[in-house]
Amino acid sequence: MSNIPIKNFKPFFLMIFVIVVVGIISQAIFFTEKPGYDGTKTIIFNLMPFNIPFIGYLPVTVEGLVYGIIFSMRMVAIFIPPLILPFTTHPSEIILMLRKFKFPEWMILLFTMAIRFLPLTIQNISITRNAQKIRKDKIRLNDLLLMLESIIITSLRTAKQMALTLDVKSFGYSKKRTSMKNISFKKNDLFFSIFSISIFIFSIILYSGGFR
Predict the structure, then answer these.
(1) H or E element: which one contains 137?
(2) How far are the Cα atoms of 94, 100, 119, 181 from residue 85, in angstroms, in the given order?
(3) Where do transmembrane segments lie in this chain (predicted)?
């Protein structure tokens, strides 16, 4: 699963780019304009050449730009792990890991279904968009609404089929689950855990020291 071509991650890179750009631009304009802000305000330039009622000149400030970069990095840090995990880790390994931590079987099932629905949904979106491009040169708002409707219907059908499959296999009938594969906590896992905890502690120290 980890030998995925880099081109398959193009939608994720595009999503991250949009998050970063929107976060930086929005905070660069509105960060110093929010009520209660009493810090410095270093204007780089104004987006509007004249004062517009209720909006003003829409100034782009250095303080807002810096906060926009920090805000965007936070959003990227939040969105990247759940997006990459389903494409780099086999579902069976995720199930074994959760079972190792004594999670309930129903919770493991819900988590696995959630992370597998994301790639399926992205694949359905890609198929629907390609079908629309074959029919039309330009995709309008109405086409996007039809695509959304198609994705919702497909997701509901998939959920129904999965529920029927679980009933047929008598999921939940046996309390003890077995697996042909087993996982253990190795040195690499220990190193990664220590590294992650160290970053977390370092972030808390920076935050408590006034770094925002």
Answers:
(1) none
(2) 9, 18, 11, 20
(3) 12-31, 43-60, 106-125, 189-209
Helices (H), the chain: 10-30, 62-88, 91-100, 105-135, 141-168, 187-208
- Could you tell me the two tokens for 129? 């968009």
Which residues, including other chains, have CB under 8 Å from residue 111's CB and lie 6 or more apart? 94, 98, 103
pTM of the model: 0.50
As a whole number of angstroms, the distance between CA 47 and CA 44 comes to 10
Amino acid at 65: L
The SS3 assignment for 98 reads: helix
pLDDT of residue 4: 59
Distance CA 156, CA 159 (A): 5
CA angle, residues 13, 127, 92, in degrees to nearest 5: 70
Alpha-carbon distance 64 to 32, whole Å?
Answer: 6
Q: Which two tokens stand for residue 73?
A: 């990095």
Q: Which residues, 6 or more positions from 9, have their beta carbon under 8 angstroms from its beta carbon?
A: 87
Instruction: State which H helix or E strand residue 46 sits in.
Output: strand 43-46
Side-chain-side CA neighbours of residue 181 (13 Å): 10
Inter-axis angle of helices 105-135 and 141-168, nearest 10: 140
